[in-house]
C-alpha cells in the first residue's frame, strides 16, 4: 500500500519536517529518508534527522508537579502550540513524548517536535485547537495555566478556553482508561 497508494512514514516525516522549518517551528534537522521496496511494495523505511541534545521532554512536566519553572515552561509551550495552530499545523500526535525541550538562557525554552508522520495542514477553528491539546494528558492545574495563556493569544475568555480544553482532555483520558480496563479484563464498578 505504501509504495503505490500512500507515502511512507519516513517520507512524510521528512516532508513535514521541511514544512515545519519553513514555518519557523523547531524539529530535529531533516537529513534524508530511505525506502526499501520490492515488487510487492514497501519493505522498510527510515527517516534520518540530526540529533537534538535536549534537557527533558514534556512528560517531565506531567509526572513532576514541582518541576522547576513548570508554570513558565507550560506558558511558553502553549505559545509554541498557538504558533503551530496559526500556521495551520494540526499535529495529530501532540502527545507528551513528542516534544523535546531545550533550556535556554533567561528562562526561555525551545520546543522541538518529533515523530512527525501524522499531521494535517488545515485551518484550525477554536474547537479543533482545543481538541489538539487532548493527548497531552494534562492535569486541571496544567489546563488552567495553559488555557489562560491561550485565551490571551486567541482572544477568547479564559473560562471558555478552560472549559473546552478540559472537555477534550477528559474525554480522551476516559477513552484511554476504558481501553486499558477492557484489555485487563476487569469490569468497571459504579457506586450506587
What does this structure look like?
- With 192 residues, the chain is of the alpha+beta class.
- The protein has a domain at 56-178: Transferase(Phosphotransferase), domain 1.
- The chain contains six helices and seven strands.
- The strands form three sheets. It has a three-stranded antiparallel beta sheet with strand order 3-5-6. The chain has a two-stranded antiparallel sheet with strand order 1-2. Strands 4-7 form a two-stranded antiparallel sheet.
- Strand 1 (30-38) and strand 2 form a beta hairpin.
- Helix 3 crosses helix 5.
- It is globular.
Helix-residue proportion: 40-55%
Rg, rounded, reads: 19 Å
Shape assignment: globular
Task: Please state the structural category.
Answer: alpha+beta
The largest sheet is:
3 strands, antiparallel
Pfam families: Kdo
Protein name: Lipopolysaccharide kinase
Organism: Xanthomarina gelatinilytica
